[in-house]
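Consider this today:
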Amino acid sequence: MDRLDRFFGVHGTALALRSERMGLLASNIANAATPNYKARDLDFARLIGAATGKTASLTTTSSRHFAAAVEPGSEARLHYRAPVQPSLDGNTVELATEQLAFAETALRYRSTLSALNGRISSLTAALKGE
């Protein structure tokens, strides 16, 4: 199994994390009108860094991207997103931000899947002796 892990590299972990992130972002979008709903996200760079043994952290353009609060029991995987413009009903979902993050994550998911497909194709070719 170790050889397969080395062959596929970080792509399997990246695919799983991106899938989890798309689920969170979809949940945020679905709850855009729910009073007191707190938008959540995960720090992909930190989690992928932990999986590869390299130190990584989220590169932000603003210190307000993630609130300091961490969802209880999530082992610091999920973070509450701090809104740029807070809502009067306590909802922190900013639809444009969530939609942009979802589209970017979906594009990166497809790219990772494509990379995995390339690796699988080369492994299949090697097994067939091509």
